[in-house]
Design a protein that fits this description.
By secondary structure, the chain is an alpha+beta fold. It is built from 3 helices and 5 strands. The chain has a 5-stranded mixed beta sheet, with helices on both faces. β1 and β2 form a beta hairpin.
Length: 138
């Protein structure tokens, strides 16, 4: 079974790997962001950088926040440049997905010796009812 948007997330990760292998670790997050902006077109990825996204609470907009990248109008990409990804970073990415009401995100860390990435899924997005696996029986 393939994951939703697997090809898309693979291309985003490939672009990030190219940036990391070229620059290495140790730079500020904005440097990797600028490099990815140059690299994404080589991977045939349409994107918006620092996109202002609305944050909702109970269906009501309560503010905005900039997401590092919004790729193909489907995937939120959050960048970090820290020594090690921590649970708090993953929780933050999951909270952003829920607040933006988006399904899939990627958390990418350029700060470690090897590129770190996590695919994040918003469990609060409902699966369409035409999916028979959606129902639970008692």
């Amino acid at each position: 079974m393939t994951m939703k948007y697997e090809d898309l997330t693979r291309r985003i990760i490939a672009a990030a790997m190219k940036v990391h292998s070229t620059l290495g670790n140790g730079f500020q997050e904005v440097i990797y962001q600028r490099a990815l902006e140059i690299e994404f077109p080589y991977h045939n990825l349409a994107f918006e950088r620092e996109k202002e996204m609305s944050i909702f609470y109970r269906g009501i907009e309560i503010g905005t926040r900039r997401v590092d990248f919004f790729v193909e109008k489907l995937i939120m990409v959050e960048l970090k440049a820290v020594i090690q990804l921590e649970d708090v970073h993953l929780a933050q990415a999951m909270n952003y997905l829920e607040a933006y009401n988006m399904e899939i995100g990627l958390l990418i860390n350029f700060g470690a010796k090897s590129l770190q990435f996590k695919r994040v899924h918003n469990n609060k997005i409902l699966v369409p009812s035409d999916n028979p696996n959606n129902f639970q029986t008692k």
